[in-house]
């Protein structure tokens, strides 16, 4: 039973509005009731069976059996899921443009540094290196000491010629390109049409023009190379302007090693040296 329930028949009744019913004033205790008057409410009359009074529960009170249950109607309404704010934020182009500018600057710097310090293009003067190289070919040259290691026999090198050149190079006037055939400390000479290096015939891979042979019209007198000296010859041995005329070259005069042909007769031509 709820607290609002009556524990005996003497408690006042409850009206619908939730307030206790006011009992009417009856006769004084011990006084006889007037004839025909109804018995006081809440007490059974004589000769009538006792009736148990029932209480009317206030609408503001709950049955004890419903304790712990919420009566708030908002508790039974599921909250609508809130959608995240999907407003498009303005894109910031500043950082992207700054990164692009930095990348372009680095690429431009690399494009300037690579030709200046690593690889350089070179135009071949004359036909001293025919048939391997032809006059006007453009080759790529790896700067000495950067991409390549020590100079080896058989390598094509670009070098600065002696100040006083006793021979004429067609289309020359600048750096020359020839092939190394002997290294520092070696001795080179020729007998008939064979070149010897340290007493052994020079093994070449058919670089020279077969029509003129290995030596051509200019024999090689015995020459011992000092430290940092190299003996160079052209692949056209018929009368090239090379170490047979101006002697060995120094390592300090070597600009770089030829690595590839990129242009021939004005057209793109890719060939490894």
Describe this structure in words.
The chain is of the alpha+beta class and about 270 residues long. The chain contains 2 helices and 12 strands; from the N terminus they run αβββββββββαβββ. It has helices at about 95-120, 245, and strands at about 120-125, 140-145, 155-160, 175-180, 185-190, 195, 200, 225, 230-235, 250, 255-265, 265-270. Strands 1, 2, 3, 4, 9, 10, 11 and 12 form an 8-stranded antiparallel sheet that branches. The longest helix is centred in the middle third of the chain and has 25 residues, at about 95-120.
Provide a short characterization of the protein structure.
This protein has helices at 94-118, 243-246; strands at 119-123, 138-143, 156-159, 176-182, 187-191, 194-197, 200-201, 223-224, 229-233, 249-250, 254-264, 267-272.
**What form results from the Cα inertia axes?**
elongated
Strand and helix order: HEEEEEEEEEHEEE
Helix content: 10-25%
User: What does the main sheet amount to?
Assistant: 8 strands, antiparallel
Count of helix runs: 2
How would you state the average pLDDT, rounded? 75
Look at the helices and sheets and give the structural class: alpha+beta
Q: Radius of gyration over alpha carbons?
A: 59 Å
What fraction of the residues are assigned to beta strands by DSSP? 15-25%
Low-confidence stretches: 1-19
**DSSP summary, beta strand count:** 12
End-to-end Cα distance, whole Å, is: 111 Å
